[in-house]
Design goal:
Blueprint lengths: L31 E10 L12 H15 L8 E5 L5 H9 L5 H5 L13 E5 L5 E5 L5 E8 L3 H16 L6 E2 L3 E2 L11 E8 L1 H6 L2 H10 L2 E4 L12 E6 L7 H30 L1 H17 L5 H17 L29 H18 L2 H8 L5 H16 L3
Antiparallel strand pairs: 1-5, 1-8, 2-3, 3-4, 4-5, 6-7, 8-10, 9-10
Helix pairs in contact: 2-11, 7-8, 8-9, 9-10, 11-12
Amino acid sequence: MTGGPYYEPPKPSSPESCPEWLKGEGDAADVVLSSRVRVARNLATGPFALRSTKRDRQRVLEVCRDRILTCGIGARIAWEELHESTSLQRALLVERHIISKQLSRGKVGAGGAAEDPRAVAYTLPDERVAIMVNEEDHLRVQGMRSGLALSEAWAEVDRIDDLLEAGLDFAFSTRFGYLTACPTNVGTGVRMSCMLHLPGLRLTGDIEKVKRAAGDMNLAVRGFYGEGSEAIGDLFQISNQTTLGKTERAILTMLESEILPKVIEYERLARRELQQKRRLALEDQAWRAWGLVTSARLLTTEEAMQALSMVRLGALLGVLPGSAGTPARATGDAGGAGATAQGAGGGAAGQSAGVRAVNLLMLLVQPAHLQKVFGRELDQEQRRAARAALLRQRLGRV
């Protein structure tokens, strides 16, 4: 496809644009970066993705593309056929949480991944909704919101699911519910998750207790990029493990009204404990992180993320520049306007802008975004230098 009234060429063209899930707004945004709801669906005709041929997958792509781009899921939609994209563009989409690493790589097996038909559609400019085609399932529809907002994300995904199903015949069993490639998704096909920033629990040594408690409740605790990824920057994703035998409403209530509020409160208690009982140690770690991001000449992704985690915590707790009245430059928020680490006297609005700026920096230090910002391909050593330079520039020192 090369044009049409209902879709736009592949984006994001600017890595500086701030997606919905990094805005730093909404309920409990001090702890919850984002809420995500995803449903898995498969067409009733033809084999599922893992058993399909290239021709099967091309047919699925064409059928789904026509429905996705015409059913009214949003005013502006970007459509990208990933088998025609560069590896850098696919990596960028992974980092923005628009597609999974699995979809980025394509189907594993004979025939080669590079020619494997697969695609993604996502709404613009906020990237709140994304639909992956030919991932593990034929369709994976996800909605993301800033802060604790699973209900809103679910409402939008449910609406889009209805729009798609009005024109597509989904594989469904009256006994089991929606049929999926993985048995753990059979039933509703719904996964709900929140990305949490939990530096307080890490510093107090209680993060393992939370992870064990989540495991006991049959919840999954994953890293920044979901399944198979490690936690970096004190960012953890907590989600339901299974969908069979539970309604969407039951999963939503369990997470949003029962479990996540407890985790959020534990993190806030840990932060208060740090402020009251270990204030000097907290300030030391926050200032060391500040020194690193404003002075270092070489930084790995992990080093930058961990330091930004402490900068975010320090800004929220009022122990870093910008939080107590002295603005520190941290440019590059959603609107391209300057922002302070917390905003001098800016109150809630200033804090929101500051958190958003740090959130966005957590995205910009990722390898693909970094190369987009600098406008050229960089090897690993060059990326370490570029990452350090970017943070020095954005946080006020050179």
